[in-house]
């Protein structure tokens, strides 16, 4: 598989350090509010990465942090008259509601700053001891001049960054580019004891400490939103590589932005939507579909038209699968058709080719719709055997599963036995051309809340 590496600006082959085991670290949310659709994008995109690698036989270890100590959390706690810990706990639960709604699997580990404090302090200490960081009045700053490669991910030179840095910076810092790895506690803020007094970690240091703690010095893949390239990931690299002397990650993946009606999503423009708001109107799965139908690096222009189109496409997938189920139930026995099996295999290979090329879910989804056409044709042909249809259904389920779609399918036969009996009696009546009895039974079925209809694949029962 080839993935676009932000570090080299090229597609590179995924070569895990340990055979078929892939270590992935994803920067997680700062838990002070509901996630917005911009935050929903990386969690869906990288969930597909996980599912795809697993389907291809890799074992994935996936770590995603929660930033549960931060200025914004403290501010929210003060506004709500609660504690930072309460705010964090509440929004971690809300995050999980959204993530599960979007069919995003839990990470293998979801470390939090508050549960990794000793590891973070040890990391800061290692930086100070090796001269890569210095203390100033209880704050600790990373000494960017000690890391000559600073800027290598964002392709900024140290000189350009210096020139662009704001004038009038904190004079305790040796350079405007130095950043806090530890912050002295202000009155009323949560704090932890450290060799530099009471304080709390800077944002960047937590990812360096947590990724190392759970996944080691070098990650196979580090992922996150494009907005994190600078300064967050640049700073993670400077901290981690200064301590370990090894690359922090072999591959850096960054997802593209979401624009709203062709404008950048921002609070000041008021075009800011939470995943929850959109899900309430369209359902979570439409949001997930919207993320999956685009290549993860392309921008998505969020608008009502796109959501409507995604909803319609998703419905086509559900209809195809339901039709298949009915067709399978009514299909004749017999060997699977070799031409159909060859065609299904061709679709599977095309899907793999798309996904192996930098996780191209946009092309993957087109292949899925090619398969939908193949399957619809076969479902509607009464000569198609059960084995052919079952093989098609199996591939359809595999591909939609890799994309994390079709997770709201009703499992099993949920039609009450009483309704099923009436439906069967009606089928017998129709065969005997007793249409008066068939109509009477239809009304009786309707009184129980179900509609019954003849289709080319057999009887369809739906809830009214
Ligand atoms: Zn991070």
TrEMBL record:
Chief localization: cytoplasm
Note the coiled coil stretches, chain numbering.
none
Every copy of the Cysteinyl-tRNA synthetase class Ia DALR domain together lies at: 350-414
- Position of sequence motif 'HIGH' region: 29-39
Q: Where in the cell is it found?
A: Cytoplasm
Q: Which Pfam families match?
A: CysS_C (PF23493), DALR_2 (PF09190), tRNA-synt_1e (PF01406)
Residues reported to bind Zn(2+): 27, 207, 232, 236
As to how many cofactors bind and how, the note says: Binds 1 zinc ion per subunit.
Kindly give the CDD domains that the UniProt entry links to this protein.
Answer: CysRS_core (cd00672)
Task: State where ATP binds.
Answer: 267
GO cellular component entries: cytosol
Catalysed reaction(s) here are:
tRNA(Cys) + L-cysteine + ATP = L-cysteinyl-tRNA(Cys) + AMP + diphosphate
Q: Which InterPro entries does the UniProt entry name for this protein?
A: Cys-tRNA-ligase, Cys-tRNA-synt_Ia_DALR, Cys-tRNA/MSH_ligase, CysS_C, Rossmann-like_a/b/a_fold, tRNA-synt_1_cat_dom, tRNAsynth_Ia_anticodon-bd
The portions of this protein that span the membrane are: none
EC number(s): the record gives: 6.1.1.16
Q: Which family does it belong to?
A: Belongs to the class-I aminoacyl-tRNA synthetase family.
What protein is this chain from?
Answer: Cysteine--tRNA ligase
Gene of this entry: cysS
């Amino acid at each position: 598989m080839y993935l676009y590496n932000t570090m080299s600006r090229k597609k590179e082959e995924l070569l895990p350090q340990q055979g078929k085991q892939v270590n992935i670290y994803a920067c997680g949310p700062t838990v002070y509010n509901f996630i917005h659709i911009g935050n929903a994008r990386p969690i869906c995109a990288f969930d597909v990465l996980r599912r795809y690698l697993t389907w291809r036989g890799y074992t994935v270890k996936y770590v995603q942090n929660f930033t549960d100590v931060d200025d914004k959390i403290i501010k929210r706690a003060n506004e709500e008259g609660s504690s930072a810990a309460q705010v964090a706990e509440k929004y971690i639960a809300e995050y999980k509601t959204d993530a599960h709604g979007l069919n995003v699997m839990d990470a293998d580990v979801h470390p939090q700053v508050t549960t990794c404090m000793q590891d973070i302090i040890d990391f800061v200490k290692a930086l100070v001891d090796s001269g890569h960081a210095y203390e100033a009045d209880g704050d600790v700053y990373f000494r960017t001049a000690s890391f000559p490669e600073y800027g290598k991910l964002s392709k900024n030179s140290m000189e350009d960054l210096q020139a662009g840095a704001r004038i009038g910076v904190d004079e305790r810092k040796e350079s405007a580019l130095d950043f806090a790895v530890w912050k002295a506690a202000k009155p009323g803020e949560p704090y932890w004891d450290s060799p530099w007094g009471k304080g709390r970690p800077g944002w960047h240091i937590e990812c360096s400490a947590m990724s190392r703690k759970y996944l080691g010095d070098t990650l196979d893949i580090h992922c996150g939103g494009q907005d994190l390239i600078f300064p967050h990931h640049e700073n993670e690299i400077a901290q981690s590589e200064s301590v370990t002397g090894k690359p922090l990650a072999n591959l850096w993946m960054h997802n593209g932005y979401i624009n709203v009606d062709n404008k950048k999503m921002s609070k000041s423009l008021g075009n800011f939507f939470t995943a929850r708001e959109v899900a309430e109107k369209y359902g979570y799965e439409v949001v997930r579909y919207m993320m999956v139908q685009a290549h993860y690096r392309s921008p998505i222009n969020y608008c009502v038209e796109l959501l409507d189109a995604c909803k319609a496409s998703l419905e086509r997938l559900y209809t195809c699968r339901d039709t298949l189920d009915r067709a399978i139930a009514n299909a004749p026995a017999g060997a699977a058709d070799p031409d159909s099996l060859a065609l299904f295999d061709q679709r599977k290979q095309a899907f793999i080719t798309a996904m192996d090329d930098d996780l191209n879910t946009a092309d993957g989804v087109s292949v899925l719709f090619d398969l939908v056409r193949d399957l619809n044709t076969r479902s509607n042909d009464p000569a198609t055997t059960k084995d052919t249809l079952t093989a098609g259904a199996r591939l359809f389920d595999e591909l939609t599963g890799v994309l994390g779609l079709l997770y709201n399918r009703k499992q099993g036969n949920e039609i009450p036995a009483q309704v099923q009996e009436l439906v069967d009696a009606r089928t017998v009546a129709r065969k005997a051309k007793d249409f008066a009895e068939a109509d009477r039974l239809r009304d009786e079925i309707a009184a129980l809340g179900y509609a019954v209809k003849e289709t080319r694949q057999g009887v369809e029962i739906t809830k009214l």
